[in-house]
């Protein structure tokens, strides 16, 4: 079990996982400080930190800045404050005093709850720290409660970050993050952390393509296999902000929470605000070890069905776009089944008046001209072919040209006296409204129940605009939270009603990717950009925090529909094998040779799928080596490993370098499942796996090694 050690006399707590500790201390001013986040300490070792000399106050500087785990605005503190409020009389300073503590025991770990109450005003704060068995990830959140009488008025919550993580003094600080845009998501960016506050954020109502709610900090010297890394990730699928702060005193913090400036929330007497989880971890062993820790955390403690191997899917969108009919979909399903696909997904265009992207969104009934007998004939044929059946939906959106909007124009986000901005011919349904949430659950429940749907590709193609709710009363900003909470409740209820249903989260590609949505879905549509070369970069950044088990990766046509790049079929398949393999090309245009080769690749992927989706991932090449990329996957028991190598170009006739592998037994021997060649583990670890790639550009290979019996 995780360890929570406490010394009541010194008001100190040590929260420890298998390899790390986070130390908290209430100082003489009743301020909760973060004394240590790093290698595992005993209680005695942690107590010795109190004997170390503390910096004194300098003019205009409070030495508490950059050291507070619960960082509230007030007094002489001018650094970033994770909790900011405004009381009814206009006072903004908080003076929280300790009000108790509790250790909660869960089936999979323990949780420390530290309680505080403002010295004068009726506001309490709870700071939660949950430690799960077998992991160094700590999950944190806050609960703010208005404890006053009905006549006390509302308290405005200006900011409520889920956690502020106090970093040790490192000398130098480097920030790792994921940046991007549509069709260029999750690109890894590493830069020195400047002095001041670096804010990563989304103000769009969704997680966003432009940034992702996680960050990693190191001292500038860590690489893939060496160095200490401090990281945190926010489990929230709406607007968010993450502040990386570096002070002139060389203290640094990471603070993350939901919402964005200038959005606030009103807390009425008797109400509480619980923030989403912000998880954090300290690891040694470079960025590779940090990634593997997060991958294992997602698999063990986030995903609904982590042990499931995700099926190979075929999606018909690029073959048909809006030109859909039952006969054409059945023909594609038959070709997909011949490739070895296990899930057939019909994308946009099957419902209402949706013959183009300007009509029908919100009317979730089959188009009677295209499906005169409903979806049943298609679904029955897909099931007869041995595949599951999936549908694309975009439940949170509506076209103005739809029966739904004509009946309920007030159901969308809007402000009075302001235009309703359309993007992609769409408006956003106000899911914060209980009546909208209830209607949407009923419609989706009926759709899934009546049509034997196994899988939903749940899309969300536009951000919030005119985010108003005229009937919300005194707190219209609450929609930014309640939309996401009602989305979560809808997904939870739908899955409870239909235990066999699986869901892919999509938002114009990877625009809604975070630990919060992953707790309710099974995989992610990574990007609308399926260009295999671009995907190498996107998938590298994706893998920093998220496991291959959730990363949807398609093989599509060449030239690529988005970039126009021509890439060989083998390279396209090998790139997509680094995640949940899918095929999205127009099979009607593929030659017999291409279809046959594709079937071989699908079979090969199924042979290593358990390694890719459930094994440990090791990135073998430095990301700045643009020509050769390789990733290794190792079975949890170490008996198998797979290597996927992708080389875009070979210069000056040089041979490809051998790839030193990782996580093998030096004394063991490993047999290539295809060639039968046997390798010594010690040689693979030191001298490396010799690649036999073609001399052409865009050469690739999959190597599957099995450990020989002792």
The portion of residues forming beta strands comes to: 25-35%
Top-tier CATH class of the largest domain: Mainly Beta
CATH-wise, what's the superfamily of the largest domain?
alpha-galactosidase from lactobacil brevis
According to CATH, what is the topology of the largest domain?
Answer: Beta-galactosidase, Chain A, domain 5
- Overall SS class: alpha+beta
User: How helical, in percent, are the residues?
Assistant: 10-25%
What would your notes on this structure say?
The protein has 13 helices and 37 strands. It folds into three domains: 3-301, Beta-galactosidase, Chain A, domain 5 (Distorted Sandwich); 325-332 and 355-523, TIM Barrel; 619-707, Immunoglobulin-like. The strands form seven sheets. Strands 6, 7, 8, 9, 12, 13, 15, 16, 20 and 21 form a ten-stranded antiparallel β-sheet that branches. An eight-stranded parallel β-barrel has the order 22-23-24-27-28-29-30-31, surrounded by five helices. The chain has a six-stranded antiparallel β-sheet with strand order 32-33-34-37-35-36. It is of the alpha+beta class and 710 residues long.
Question: What are the defining features of this structure?
Answer:
3 domains, TIM Barrel, Beta-galactosidase, Chain A, domain 5, eight-stranded parallel β-barrel, 13 helices, Immunoglobulin-like, 710 residues, globular, alpha+beta, single chain
Secondary-structure topology with pairs:
Elements (H helix, E strand, L loop, with lengths): L2 E5 L4 E5 L3 E7 L5 E8 L3 H5 L35 E4 L9 E11 L2 E10 L4 E10 L5 E9 L8 E6 L2 E5 L6 E6 L7 E6 L3 E7 L11 E5 L9 E7 L5 E7 L5 E7 L6 E3 L4 E3 L3 E7 L1 H16 L11 E3 L1 H4 L5 H14 L3 E4 L29 H9 L3 E6 L3 E2 L4 H5 L19 E2 L5 H18 L3 E4 L20 H19 L4 E4 L9 H4 L4 E3 L6 H11 L8 E5 L13 H8 L3 E4 L8 H23 L1 E4 L8 E7 L5 E8 L21 E4 L5 E3 H6 L12 E9 L3
Parallel strand pairs: 22-23, 22-31, 23-24, 24-27, 27-28, 28-29, 29-30, 30-31
Antiparallel strand pairs: 1-2, 2-3, 3-4, 5-10, 6-7, 7-8, 8-9, 9-20, 9-21, 10-19, 11-18, 12-13, 12-15, 14-17, 15-16, 16-21, 17-18, 25-26, 32-33, 33-34, 34-37, 35-36, 35-37
Helix pairs in contact: 4-5, 7-8, 10-11, 11-12
């Amino acid at each position: 079990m995780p360890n929570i050690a406490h010394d009541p006399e010194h008001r100190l707590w040590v929260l420890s996982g298998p390899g790390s500790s986070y130390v908290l201390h209430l100082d003489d001013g009743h301020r909760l400080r973060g004394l240590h986040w790093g290698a595992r300490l005993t209680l005695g070792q942690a107590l010795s930190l109190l004997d170390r000399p503390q910096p004194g106050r300098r003019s205009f500087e409070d030495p508490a800045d950059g050291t507070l785990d619960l960082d509230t605005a007030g007094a002489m503190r001018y650094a970033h404050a994770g909790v900011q409020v405004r009381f009814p009389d206009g006072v903004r300073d908080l003076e929280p005093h300790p009000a108790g503590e509790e250790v909660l025991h869960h089936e999979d770990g323990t949780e420390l709850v530290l309680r505080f109450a403002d010295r004068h005003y009726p506001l309490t704060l709870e700071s939660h720290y949950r430690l799960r068995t077998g992991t160094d990830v700590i999950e944190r959140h806050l609960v703010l409660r208005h404890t006053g009488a009905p006549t006390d008025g509302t308290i405005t919550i200006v900011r409520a970050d889920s956690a502020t993580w106090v970093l040790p003094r490192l000398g130098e600080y480097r920030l790792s993050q994921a940046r991007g845009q549509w069709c260029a998501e999750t690109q890894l960016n590493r830069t020195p952390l400047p002095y001041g506050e670096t804010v990563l954020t989304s103000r769009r109502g969704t997680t966003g393509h432009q940034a992702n709610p996680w960050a990693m900090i190191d001292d500038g010297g860590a690489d893939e296999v060496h160095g200490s890394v401090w990281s945190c990730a926010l489990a929230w699928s709406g607007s968010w902000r993450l502040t990386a702060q570096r002070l002139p005193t060389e203290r640094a913090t990471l603070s993350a929470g939901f919402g964005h400036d200038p959005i606030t929330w009103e807390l009425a007497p008797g109400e509480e605000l619980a923030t989403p989880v912000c998880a954090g971890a300290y690891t040694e062993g470079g960025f590779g070890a940090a990634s593997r820790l997060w991958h294992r955390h997602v698999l063990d403690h986030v995903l609904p069905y982590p042990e499931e191997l995700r099926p190979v899917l075929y999606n018909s969108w690029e073959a048909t776009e809006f030109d859909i009919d039952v006969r054409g979909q059945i023909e594609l399903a038959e070709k997909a089944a011949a490739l070895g696909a296990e899930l057939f997904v019909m994308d946009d265009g099957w419902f209402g008046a949706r013959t183009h992207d300007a009509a029908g969104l919100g009317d979730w009934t089959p188009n009677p001209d295209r499906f005169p007998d409903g979806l049943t004939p298609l679904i029955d044929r897909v099931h007869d072919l041995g595949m599951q059946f999936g549908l694309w939906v975009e439940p949170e959106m509506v076209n103005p040209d739809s029966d739904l909007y004509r009946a309920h124009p007030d159901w969308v986000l809007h402000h009075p006296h302001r235009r309703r901005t359309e993007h992609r011919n769409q408006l956003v349904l106000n899911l914060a409204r209980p009546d909208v949430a209830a209607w949407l659950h009923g419609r989706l429940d009926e759709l899934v129940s009546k049509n034997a749907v196994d899988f939903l590709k749940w899309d969300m193609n536009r951000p919030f605009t005119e985010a108003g709710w005229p009937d919300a009363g005194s707190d219209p900003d609450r929609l930014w939270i309640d939309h996401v909470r009602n989305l979560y409740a809808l997904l939870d209820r739908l899955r409870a009603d239909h235990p066999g249903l699986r869901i892919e989260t999509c938002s114009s590609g990877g625009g809604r990717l975070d630990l919060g949505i992953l707790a309710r879905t099974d995989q992610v549509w990574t990007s609308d950009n399926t260009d295999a070369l671009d995907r190498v970069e996107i998938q590298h950044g994706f893998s920093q925090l998220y496991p291959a088990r959730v990363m949807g990766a398609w093989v599509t046509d060449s030239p690529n529909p988005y970039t126009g790049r021509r890439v060989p079929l083998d390279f396209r398949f090998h790139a997509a094998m680094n995640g949940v393999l899918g095929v999205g090309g127009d099979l009607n245009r593929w030659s017999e040779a291409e279809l046959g080769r594709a079937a071989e690749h699908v079979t090969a992927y199924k042979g290593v799928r358990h390694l890719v989706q459930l094994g440990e991932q090791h990135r073998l090449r430095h990301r700045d080596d643009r020509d050769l990329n390789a990733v290794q996957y190792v079975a949890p028991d170490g008996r198998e490993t797979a290597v996927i190598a992708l080389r875009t170009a070979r210069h000056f006739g040089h041979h490809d370098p051998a790839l030193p592998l990782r996580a093998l037994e030096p004394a063991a021997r490993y047999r290539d499942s295809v060639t039968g060649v046997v390798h010594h583990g010690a040689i693979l670890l030191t001298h490396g796996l010799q690649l036999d790639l073609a001399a052409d550009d865009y050469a690739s290979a999959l190597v599957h090694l099995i450990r020989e019996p002792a």
